Amino acid sequence: MIHVDDLVFAGSYDFWINKFLPAMTSKFSVNYSELKEVGSSICFLKRKLVRWSDGLMIVPGTAIERVVACFENACFENVFFGPARAQKSPCDSSIKNAGTSQPLTTADVRAHRSVTGLLLFLARERMDVMYVVKELATCMVSPSLCVLQRLRKVIGYLKDRDIKLVAPEAGAGKRRTGGEQCWLVESFADADWSANKQHRKSTSSAIHFVNGNFVHASSRSQRVVSLSSAESEVARMEST
After folding, report:
1. Helices of type H across the chain
2. What would the pLDDT profile of 156-182 be if each residue is shown by its tens digit?
3. What is the 3-state secondary structure (H, E, C) of 32-100?
4. Which of 181, 159, 170 is nearest to 213 (CA)?
């Protein structure tokens, strides 16, 4: 018995319906879903893909609705933190400072860890919250009320926000267009210099695009404390 799972087909619909699908169904038992009219959706690798008139909306595998519900309603021992107001940004400059407010109770700490753990899975596909989730994860041992407010802010920001991929244009990227390339890969990387006021470690970040569409990003704290901005950039290049 041969089992093949998680196969995605992209290309000519005539080839799919007249050649590929009949050839596969003649030899194998096949279950499939199709993106057809605008507004239709399929699930692939635990992600939801919704067709728009000008692209695809990608809903991460760890659904934002689940994270919001876990924070606002009940996530551990009937602990809930109440509604989070919609936010325009996932964090503010205070996230670089140490949270020195009152520590959370034992039940609140466990609930906080549950929500932050879900965010760690979601942030792999959401470059806009990678940094703040990384910083929140460093406080999972002993979170305070200040850290909880930062978590509330990112939860409010995540409401009604997903990733949209537009139809790519061959050789067209974010900063460069035209030329003879069919596939244009662009990478952007940077590092802050000891921005965190608590541990003074710099953050290395990178984001990668193929024909203008986001494919991968990273945000990681460096292992050492850099003594200059140049040293933080060298550490960033070694890590990325």
Report:
1. 13-15, 21-25, 64-72, 106-122, 130-137, 145-158, 229-239
2. 998 866 677 777 777 778 877 766 678
3. CCCCCCCCCEEEECCEEEEEECCEEEEECCCCHHHHHHHHHCCCECCECCCCCCCCCCCCCHHHHCCCC
4. 170
Residues 127, 174: Cα–Cα separation, whole Å? 16
47 pairs with which residues across the strands?
44
Alpha-carbon distances of 44 from 17, 32, 60, 183, rounded to whole Å: 19, 10, 10, 24
Which residue, 121, 122, 125, is CA-closest to 217? Answer: 125
pLDDT one-digit tens code per residue, 41-57: 888 777 788 888 878 88
Sole residue written with tokens 């503010």 = 92
Contacts of 231 (CB under 8 A, 6+ apart): none
Query: Hey, where are the domains in the chain?
Result: 64-158, 170-239
